Amino acid sequence: SSAASDVYKRQDLPSVLAPDIPRMELLGNHAFYMDRHRGVLGYSTEAVDINGGSVVVRITGRNLQLQAMTEQELRIDGIIEKIELVE
Predict the structure, then answer these.
(1) What does the DSSP 8-state code read for residue 37?
(2) C-alpha radius of gyration, the chain, whole number
(3) C-alpha–C-alpha distance, residues 43 and 32, integer Å
(4) DSSP-based three-state secondary structure for 2
(5) Which stretches does DSSP call E strand in the chain?
(6) Residue 73 burial by CB count (10 A; 0-12/13-18/19+): exposed, middle or buried?
(7) What is the pLDDT of residues 20-41, one digit of tens each?
(8) By the 8 A CB rule, do 57 and 43 touch?
């Protein structure tokens, strides 16, 4: 079997099945999307802490702006330098 098919076999993604697990997407270093979040815990132009349920997602960078936030999803724009998952 090819290496690519082995990768797909190993990626048994429970997040697709579990509606409470957050999904994150990074577009370059300028936009971060997250759905299924549980609120913003802290916010400044240098750091945003997002409640992801079992983990806190910490976005750090410069000129960070919370562009959109609904109960289900949020978007942060700016220069994203680091994303940390803090248990």
Answers:
(1) -
(2) 15
(3) 14
(4) coil
(5) 23-27, 31-35, 40-43, 47-51, 56-69, 73-86
(6) middle
(7) 788 999 999 999 999 999 999 9
(8) no
- Residue in this structure with the two tokens 């609120």, named with its chain if needed: 39
pLDDT one-digit tens code per residue, 48-78: 999 998 889 999 999 999 999 999 899 999 9
pTM of the model: 0.77
Q: Which is it for strands 40-43 and 31-35: parallel, antiparallel or unpaired? A: unpaired
As a dihedral over the C-alpha atoms of residue 73, residue 36, residue 40, residue 33, rounded to 10 degrees, the angle is: -50
Spatial neighbors of 34 by CB under 8 A, at least 6 apart, are: 22, 23, 24, 25, 50, 52, 57, 73, 74
